[in-house]
Structures are given as C-alpha cells and as structure tokens.
Write a structure and sequence with these properties.
With about 775 residues, this protein is of the alpha/beta class. The protein is about 40% helix and about 10% strand. It has 26 helices and 20 strands. The strands form 5 sheets. The chain has an 8-stranded parallel sheet with strand order 1-10-9-8-7-6-5-2. The N and C termini lie far apart (about 95 Å). It binds glutamine and zinc ion. The site of zinc ion (ZN) has 6 residues, from loops.
C-alpha cells in the first residue's frame, strides 16, 4: 500500500475561527484558556479532515507563526520579550506583535520581531535572532500539548519541525557568515527536542529544510551535512522535507544525508523525481509531492499516474505520496463555496479536496499492474514558480510602449500640471473606517442598496478631498474608500476572474488574504475606477491621481490558471490595466498611479531564474502604462526596502514618478537609486505609516535633506511610504500637516537661496 501523508494543514480554520479567537483575545474580551480551547478545536477538526492519511502532521498548527513556535521551543525568544511578561503566551505575542503604546513617541514601545516573506509565498514569518550568546534551552510545552491532544484522539501523528539549518538560515539575514557557529550551539537542543518526541511516541518526524531549494554556498551545504550527521544516531525516522522548487546542486548532498526519507516537491521539481528514485539508497523512503499545495486547481490524476508509474515500479513500498508542500498556502474547503459557477468550481480543489485527491491517487497507484517493460522516462516538465515551458512565451510588442523619453514627458507634464518643487502627495488610500466597512458589509448582504452605498462612498471621497485641500497637498487622491482590497476590487470587475467567499489564506498571524482566481482569459469590459476618480476631480482644482493596481501585483496576489504561462496571463492583465488607463485619460485624468506592491515578491528563489521573470514583469508594466500620452504622468508605488538586486528592472519600468518605502532606513535606500543613476522622479516615503506615531516636521525635513543628497530638486516628491488605510483620520491629518509643512519649508529655503544667488553681485 502506498503511504500517504500531509505536510501541513491550514491553521486559520475553515471560517477563520482562529482569527476571531486571536483578535478577541488580544482585545482582552476572552481569556487565554478560551483561546487555547478554540485552537484545540481547530486542530481536532483539521485532524478529522485528515483521518484517511497514514501520517497526519502535528505542530503545523500555530497560534501565530510556526517559525516563532520553533524559536520558542528552542528557548531562543529574545530576553526583551520575556521581561515583564506574565507567562509564555504573553511573551510569545509580545514577540509576534510588539507592545505598542499608542501616542508614545517611540519610547517604551516594544517592537515585534522582524517579519519577512516565507520563501516565495505570501506567508510571513518572524525572523529568528542569533545575536546573543545565551544558550538555547528546550521550552516546548506548546508542542507537548499538541502531541498529547493528538495521541488522546488516536491520530497517527507525525511531528513537523522546522529543520535546524533552515532555522538558522532564516535568521542569518542570508549573509555568507559561516552558519556553523550558531548551529553547533543549537544542535544539542534539537537533539533534546527529538528525544522528547521519541519519549512521546513519535516514530516519523518530518523535518523541513526548504533552504535546500535555494542557491547554497559551501558553508551552508556543509552545515546541512553537519546537522544531519549529528542527529543520525537517534532512534527516530527523519523525513527530510524540501519544497517550493528543485534541489539542483543540492541533490547529491540530499541523497547522502543519513535520514530515513526525503520529500521532494514533484510539482515544481518533477524532473528530479526519477534521479532521486535512482540515487537514494535502498533503505530510504521517497515522498513525492504530487498534489499542488500552492494552487487551487484539481490534480490531473491520469497524467500524474502516468509519470508516477515507472517510479512506483522502481520504489514500490518506498514511494510515499503527499501534497507538494504544506497546504497552508491554499484555502480550507471548497465545499463552502456556494456562489461559484459550476464550470469554475468543478476545476478547483482546496485543502480538504486535495487530501481526497491524494487518497484517490494512492488507490489508483496500488491498483495498477506493475509495468512489464522497462520504465519509460517520466515527463520532465517542472513548474518552478509556475514558469512553464509548454508554449513559447508570447513576445511583447515594443510598439505597445509609445512614450517619449522621460525628459520630454516631464517637460510636457510640468506645462499643464504646474506643480511646485517637491510636490506633495499620498499613496492612495485614506482610513478604511468602521463606517466604510459596515457600509460595504451591509451592501454585500443587500441591507444597503447600491444607490445608498455609492452615496456613502461619495461622502467619504468628499471628506478625503476636503481634508487634502485644507492640508494643502498638491496631487490629491480620492482615497480608495470603495475598495475592499487592491486586488479583489479589480478582480471583481474584470472578466476571467472568480472570487471566493471563504477562500482565505493566512498571510501572517490573524491576517488572511483571499486571492481571486484567474480561470479564463482576462479582459477589460468596462471602466472600473473612472466614476470615483471623476467625482473626486469634480470637487477640486488640484489634480487627482487615478489609482490602479498593476498587472504583476494582480498576478502575484491571485491564484492563476495553469493552462497558460504566468507570463501570458500577466500580459492579459497588463492589457486590461492599459484599457483602464485609457479610460481615465478619456475622462480627463492626467496623473495615473499603477501600484506594483508585489513585483518584488514574485522574484524566483533561484538567482538564475530571476532575469527572465523581471524581463516579463517589466514588459507587463510597460504594456500597462505605455499607451498613456506623454503628457499623462505615470506613477508607480512599491512598498519595499530592498531594490539593490532589481534596480535595472525598476529603471526599465520607466514610470515618471516612483514612490518607495525609505523612512525606516532613514533614506539609505536612496543610495541604491543614486548608484544606479535612477533617471526619473522619486518620492521616498518620508514617514512610516505602519506606526501610529506622528512624525515631526523637523524629522521629515531631515529626511528630505538626506534625500536631496541623492535626488535633484526637480525630481523629488514628498509622500508617506505607503497607503493610509490602516490608520485613524486624526493621526493621518497630523502627520500630513507636518509633511506639507516640511515641503513648504524646503521650498522657502530653496527660494531664498536662489534669490540670494540672483541679487548678490557676482564676486570676482
Ligand atoms: N494605493 C494603495 C494604497 O494606498 C497601495 C497599497 C500598497 O502599496 N500595498 O493603499
Ligand atoms: Zn505600499
């Protein structure tokens, strides 16, 4: 019988039960034991969904983040989170969320651990720290509780641990520092953790080492060796688990490790399955991830069986089947979706359905007759990051980018826009208040009719315009009150997308996203943003920026069909955005911002794959923006703090103005723009919108002066570093007032300097 198992199940609950439990607990409305009760119920339900499996994961559940759970178990929670905490749970949430004291200007605020993206997913983990030399110490009561619950319920459990090398790597800021020093200190604690699992009755342990799908330097490869040699004498079976891509240069290393089995992501690395089957020693299990844990489409079982057959012949009982990676990255249960059209629903599988597929596949594998003839070579198509080579990518026609060089465009734009030096603007959204969300919810369930809803949104827009006028901002926005989400809003209106009701996927902690599904050709059918922008423009003489989400972000934050390449889908999205730009222009809009918040996060894990991605991503942005007149000013916005490795792509996008996140690095990021001679205008975010603190005028002036060391006067814009939707109106108004004042101050200084230069007689 072919063994089937799962690598991890979504933890947020089919109806986001955990989200609600966390948020009520954080608000102090429920107790810790009520929170733990909900957590236990979610786990129990998750295990029930998985009861047909041979091995069911535990520890895949987490109250916030599995990397933080590992940090806790290893006693690696920094001291600052433990001081003053009432118990372990309290220090855990301090590390996860910080302890902000609203209004207190920084002092006394305990910042959370840094958070960053988990490989190439939209999940975010809390970065471990290794700065201190304090000893690691096993502190795993949260794991023990889960194990005992699983045992009591008779679950055939398989603990899932984040492997020691990946754990160190996640915290090592990816520098080339020799990892072995930390690892050597850490391994004894890992041993104790594994011994504890043995004592609790574990036989197999899934040990995740996804770092093995990245480019590893020799010290890191050595670290992998060292770690598994050090753990090899324990009476426990380790399933070394990799996912999100092929092993490539690390494959040989993996076959030599003293572990009991290896898991390979056979969706993204199918071509390596046969090699591994051949090279793994005879006593090792090969677990193949054959059901896609990163997408929502049904598995093509016939095709899967046909490439699996020769591997089954070779491996027999040594073949295990699983999803490609943890199911954390897909929604829980398709059965809840009662509003999808059958043509779409019939093609989908969420976590629960994927496990059923696994069961069916294993039954079919077991039923088949072993092949008589020699095994035929399995198909070798990989889909690393969905890069798919089935059809040649469609060339992007250069004719689609018709704009003149930046200087000519800038000259034309300044003629009619007549903006002052250091123009002030915002990134698009204003506070999404409870009233706005209530109106949207009421409209959705039919309690508020469309006319009533639209009237309320117009009222919000009027308020946003009035505030901006009063503050004296130069380029205004309508405020995005009508948008539930910057991707879903467009997906709802474009053809080719489906929207789910409960298709939530955890992004971090209690935060979830509901990616729309691209199931057919994407086409623009009607203006999506024009009426709101036009209404806003009717209220003011200042220019109002049209606000769009860019093609690459729409792509990266959706589940995308697999019968087209990502590149092809991106071109379709780009054409749709281009139509919207044209519609805005027809309505008289002269500034359009195309947000590409997720461009960087689509970057492939392997350096060798990056150029191709950036190539088509930039091409898509140029298709989206390239139909605009030279006199239309195109802005883009990216809220990241790393550009060094994508700078040529950013230059090639050729937006007239780019707004970026720089405030947290105190404008240091601009050095990268300077080094690459970034030729167009830049709006470095002058304050951090993620904090409720109101920046002082002086602080903003200081940042702008720092910026002016890299950016010439005529190309510097003044804006916050991201949208303001998560903030309160009073904070926003105070912060923007200071921001405008800072710009005015610098303008006056500049004027004085130029007056002095012209009135003073030349000294010679
Ligand atoms: N225009 C969007 C906003 O202001 C941009 C959001 C983002 O960059 N994530 O909210
Ligand atoms: Zn942003």
């Amino acid at each position: 019988m072919t063994t089937i198992h799962n690598l991890g199940f979504p933890r947020i609950g089919a109806r986001r039960e955990l989200k609600r439990a966390l948020e009520t607990y954080w608000r102090g409305e429920t107790t810790a034991s009520e929170l733990q009760q909900t957590a236990a119920t979610v786990r129990e339900r998750n295990w029930a969904y998985q009861r047909e499996l041979d091995w069911v994961p535990v520890f895949d559940f987490s109250l916030y983040d599995h990397v933080l759970d590992t940090t806790l178990a290893l006693g690696n929670l920094p001291e600052r989170y433990r001081i003053g905490a009432v118990d372990q749970l309290d220090s855990y949430f301090r590390a996860a969320r910080g302890k902000s004291q609203r209004g207190a200007a920084g002092a006394g605020t305990l910042h959370a651990l840094e958070m960053t993206k988990w490989f190439d997913t939209n999940y975010h983990y809390l970065v471990p720290e290794f700065e201190s030399d304090s000893p690691f110490e096993l502190d795993a009561e949260h794991f023990v509780a889960q194990l005992r619950q699983a045992r009591a319920l008779g679950v055939r459990f398989k603990p899932v641990l984040l492997g020691p090398v990946t754990y160190v790597w996640l915290g090592a800021k990816r520098d080339e520092r020799d990892p072995n020093r930390v690892l050597e200190r850490l391994l004894p604690t890992y041993r104790r953790l594994l011994q504890m699992l043995i004592a609790e009755g574990a036989t197999w342990v899934q040990i995740d080492e996804p770092l093995l799908v990245t480019d590893l330097s020799t010290p890191w490869q050595r670290a992998v060796n060292l770690a598994y040699e050090a753990l090899s004498d324990l009476p426990l079976k380790l399933l070394l688990t990799t996912y999100f891509g092929p092993l490539k240069d690390n494959l040989e290393l993996v076959t030599q490790l003293p572990v009991s089995g290896v898991h390979l992501d056979a969706i993204r690395a199918r071509s390596e399955a046969a090699t591994l089957a051949e090279r793994l020693p005879d006593d090792r299990i090969l677990s193949l991830g054959v059901v896609d844990g990163r997408n929502v489409w049904k598995c093509d079982q016939a095709a899967t069986l046909s490439w699996l057959a020769p591997l089954h012949d070779r491996l027999a009982e040594r073949l295990w089947l699983a999803p490609s990676c943890s199911l954390l990255h897909v929604p829980v249960d398709l059965a809840q979706e009662d509003q999808l059209v059958p043509e779409v629903a019939n093609k989908l599988a969420f976590a629960v359905q994927k496990l059923a597929e696994l069961k069916q596949l294993s039954a079919k594998v077991d039923e088949r007759e072993p092949a008589r003839a020699a095994a035929t070579a399995p198909a070798t198509r990989d889909t690393p990051q969905g890069i798919d080579h089935r059809s040649p990518p469609e060339p992007t026609r250069a004719v689609e980018f018709r704009r003149a060089a930046f200087e000519r465009r800038a000259a034309q734009q300044s003629q009619h826009l007549r903006l002052p030096t250091y123009p002030t603007t915002t990134i698009g959204s204003f506070p999404q208040t409870t009233a706005i969300r209530a109106a949207r919810a009421a409209h959705r369930v039919g309690k508020l009719d469309t006319a009533g809803y639209e009237a309320q949104m117009r009222q919000e827009i009027r308020r946003a315009i009035e505030v901006q006028e009063q503050l004296g901002l130069d380029v205004l926005v309508h405020g995005e009150a009508e948008r539930n989400d910057m991707v879903e809003y467009f997906a709802e209106q474009l053809d080719g997308f489906a929207i789910t009701r409960f298709g939530w996927v955890q992004s971090y902690g209690s935060r979830c996203v509901k990616p729309p599904i691209v199931h057919a050709d994407v086409t623009w059918t009607k203006p999506m943003t024009v009426a709101w922008t036009q209404y806003a423009q009717s209220l003011t003489d200042k220019p109002v920026k049209g606000m769009l989400t860019g093609p690459v972000t729409l792509l990266n934050w959706s589940f995308v069909r697999e019968d087209r390449t990502r590149r092809e889908v991106c071109v379709q999205l780009a054409r749709a955005v281009r139509e919207e730009v044209a519609a805005l222009e027809r309505a008289g809009v002269t500034i359009v911002q195309i947000d590409e918040a997720a461009l960087r996060e689509g970057l492939p894990l392997r350096t060798a794959d990056r150029a191709e991605y950036l190539d088509w991503a930039v091409a898509a942005f140029r298709v989206a923006s390239g139909g605009a007149a030279d006199s239309t000013q195109i802005h883009t916005h990216m809220c990241y703090s790393r550009f060094d490795d994508i700078m040529p792509a950013i230059v090639a996008m050729d937006a007239d103005v780019i707004t970026i996140e720089t405030s947290r690095s105190n404008m240091k990021l601009l050095d990268v723009f300077d080094q690459h001679h970034y030729p167009n205008a830049i709006g470095p975010g002058v304050y951090d919108i993620h904090s409720p603190n109101v920046p002082t005028t002086d602080a903003i002036v200081g940042r702008l002066q720092r910026a002016l060391r890299c950016v010439p006067d005529e190309r510097l814009w003044v804006n916050p570093d991201c949208g303001l939707k998560t903030r309160e109106w009073d904070e926003v108004i105070d912060a923007l007032r200071n921001m405008v004042e800072a710009a005015l101050f610098l303008r006056r200084r500049r004027q004085e300097a130029s007056d002095a230069a012209t009135t003073e007689p030349a000294r010679c």
